[in-house]
Amino acid sequence: MALKTIITYPIEVCLRLIGLWPNSSYRILQRIFWTVVMGTCVTFQIWYCISYFKTADLPDLLDGLSVTLSNTITFIKLIILWFNYRKLRNILIFVFEDWNNCDLTHQNKEFMMGNLVICSRISKFLVVIYSMTCILYSASTMLMSNDIGDDIGELNLNNKKLLLKMRFPFDVTIFPLYEFITIAQFAFEYSVAFMAGMLMALSAALSLHTEQGPTILAKCFPYYVAVNCEAFVLCYTGEYLASKSENINRAAYTMFWYNLNKQNSRTVLFILMQTRSPLTLTAGKFVTLCVETFAN
């Protein structure tokens, strides 16, 4: 195999870990390991969503559903790739042979090296983005306050919050089981994020290996950026409205309304009643548009 190939080192590490690298050892054991790990974790996540579908708060339920759906999709991708291992192996071997071809012209070599640079940047960018997303999500989940009710108190017993929304058939708050599960959940979520990013980088690498690869990426990337920018603008607008609404309520409550005359006191009371619930921007009255929703 060539020392330099459009399949960058992070992609190679990912393919080796999940048992998809051509002619790698222990492929069967790796597939069994990830099947057991991902199957068990996704099952516990789905169990949580089903159990607390009617009792959990909507933001909490959406948080659990979004992570569960993301992990389930990644698991399905792995299963599909495992069933199509021979096709992927032949594609990768063809790519390696193409890069080892000594009869390539100088123009073709420059074209391939240019694609290598682009693919390397895409891989590094995805590693950084997915790593930062996983770390920030974990930090915000563990450090921010949790308003889960008493009906799901096992997830918040003694102020102990799980990183991922899962339901277990045993008590997870005892020492050192809670600490072990928290570390295991972070390792699992980071592994899933790394897999998702590198599988996306693999698709970009295989596209760049073709002559029309850069054109395809040039068409898709601006649309992807535009969609995310539009979602961010809407979520930021909702966050701004909610923040200003809370400021109005706080300002009305802290003023010396009890020193006002009767008519002005009623006006302040009316403002307090109207701003008791913050003004929010929703999508079809199903999900609140805010920065937290955009991050999830």
Topology diagram in text:
Blueprint: H1 9-17, H2 27-51, H3 58-83, H4 85-99, H5 106-143, H6 177-208, H7 213-254, H8 262-274, E1 282-283, E2 287-288, H9 291-295
Antiparallel strand pairs: 1-2
Helix pairs in contact: 2-3, 5-6, 6-7, 7-8
Structure characterization notes:
This protein has 296 residues and is mostly helical. The chain has two domains: 9-211, no CATH class; 228-296. It has nine helices and two strands. The protein has helices at residues 9-17, 27-51, 58-83, 85-99, 106-143, 177-208, 213-254, 262-274, 291-295; strands at residues 282-283, 287-288. Strands 1-2 form a two-stranded antiparallel sheet. A hairpin with a 3-residue loop joins strand 1 (282-283) and strand 2. Helix 2 (27-51) runs antiparallel to helix 3 (58-83) and helix 7 runs antiparallel to helix 8 (262-274). The longest helix has 42 residues, at 213-254. It is elongated, with a radius of gyration of 25 Å. It starts with 8 loop residues before the first helix and ends with a helix. The chain crosses the membrane at residues 32-53, 65-85, 122-140, 180-202. One of its GO terms (molecular function) is olfactory receptor activity. InterPro entries: 7tm6_olfct_rcpt. Keywords: Cell membrane, Membrane, Olfaction, Receptor, Sensory transduction, Transducer, Transmembrane, Transmembrane helix. It is found in: Cell membrane.
